[in-house]
Amino acid sequence: MCCSVRSSPLQGRMALTRPFVLVLSTALPLLFFSPADAGEVGVSYGRLGNNLPSTASVVKLLKQSGITTVRLYDANSTVLKALANTGITVMVMLPNDHLAAAAADPSSARRWVRQNVAAHYPATRIHGVAVGNEVFEEASNLTRQLVPAMANVHAALVRLGLDEAVKVSTPIAFTALQESWPPSAGRFRDDIAKPVMKPMLDFLERTRSYLTINAYPFFAYVEQPDKISLDYALGNSKAGVRDPVTGLVYHSLLDAQLDATYFAMEKLGSSASARQGNSLGGPDASAYISESGWSSGGRRRPGRRLEKAGYGAGAPAATIANAKAYNNYLINRVLSGDTGTPYRPDADMDVYIFALFNENEKGCGADDIEQHFGLFYPNQTKVYEFDFRGGALPSWCVANASAGQARLQAALDYACGHGADCSDIQPRAPCFEPNTVVAHASHAFNSYYQRSGRDKAACDFAGAAYVVHHAPKIGKCVLPWQVLD
Ligand SMILES: *[C@@H]1O[C@H](CO)[C@@H](O)[C@H](O)[C@H]1NC(C)=O
Ligand SMILES: *[C@@H]1O[C@H](CO)[C@@H](O)[C@H](O)[C@H]1NC(C)=O
Ligand SMILES: *[C@@H]1O[C@H](CO)[C@@H](O)[C@H](O)[C@H]1NC(C)=O
Ligand SMILES: *[C@@H]1O[C@H](CO)[C@@H](O)[C@H](O)[C@H]1NC(C)=O
Q: Which of 99, 134, 141, 142 gets mutated to test ligand 2 (max ligand atoms within 8 A of its CB)?
């Protein structure tokens, strides 16, 4: 039974049988310069293990590691309480076994939202509810209940005034796509396209939410190592693969999976509305990956198809080196703000890496490959090196608009008086426009920070500033990044 979920026939040339959630957001107008919108990378905190640390230790580990967003597979109140007042954002889940009730009965959905969201918010920064998980794969008899359940959960959030803060989505398996190669051929399975995906996309657009999809280049590679190069699966193919229809070249299988999803959405008429409300210059759509990752070990799964495909001995996909390469690629991609895809160059990409820990109760039997997706061993040692703070990436310092005019002005004066180069923001200088305190403060703070050798402490200004890892553009000026000796 445990294996059956993952052994559905390969659909489409690059379909994946694994859960990775990637969220395609529909439209987030950028009302003002807001570097925090470029995407976030967090982890899926799966708990299918009998040797995992206490929730209190886990929260400490998240904070130590600079992990600022997590996805849960339930809404366990012990976990949600432990995450209170940490600033960590959380996507909770209404499990598949609650779905039928939530769809049939609005008051059941309201009860669930009161107990599992409202009771913890805002102390615990819940920002999303996943309604079910991979329903088409794992609870296919509930497929028709999915969108009604999402709508009832959303309606419950509306009644509590939480619908702006907490978005409703549902992580779908990548097998929801019938075709995924070339990306331009991407389309949803016929049995779900019109009856389920179309109303779901309408719902997501109406509620300003996003599509979430579980996308695993790992499983695509494992199933077709003869057709897919390892570099491409790891996100780093020099040559790339060309979509013969669009001519777009893909250097990363994950990008191809994302674009296949965008094309599938478009075929259901989603692109027009995805671009609406976007007249302020924001990206067409954003992509959040609610699950993606790479196994670092374990034995192959039983089954002829997978054996033939070279799970384990012949072509060992699941190695520490590969898992390290892929997950660092994901982390750095999001932190650097380089989140667009060939077809949607302006798209955001939020990612939950699967998973926080190696979980010894996943998969089928001892040492299954599914038990090795963790970034950490259960004893809290890292399986390999990674850095959610972007220590090795270029960085910039920008003003936090929420700090308010007075604090920003004081910090701006301080920076300009203590070594920041503020000549560019004087009247008639190239970066004077926009002539606002927050814009000028970003220039001054960044200059101060760069000249201090990008010491994190030099980007604080009593909480009025913070570090970003993608070059901020303010008016016509891109903030400089200086390589210092
Ligand atoms: C929630 O998690 C805690 C800590 O792991 C566990 O002891 C408890 O049984 C869980 N509660 C439910 C309802 O699953
Ligand atoms: C769906 O199927 C599961 C078992 O596969 C069963 O437990 C559940 O009751 C079914 N739900 C509905 C609404 O039919
Ligand atoms: C943690 O567990 C891993 C895997 O079992 C082991 O290799 C490592 O040495 C352990 N670390 C500590 C500090 O015990
Ligand atoms: C910006 O400032 C507000 C208010 O002080 C604070 O809540 C928020 O966390 C800050 N944002 C960042 C990214 O530091």
A: 141
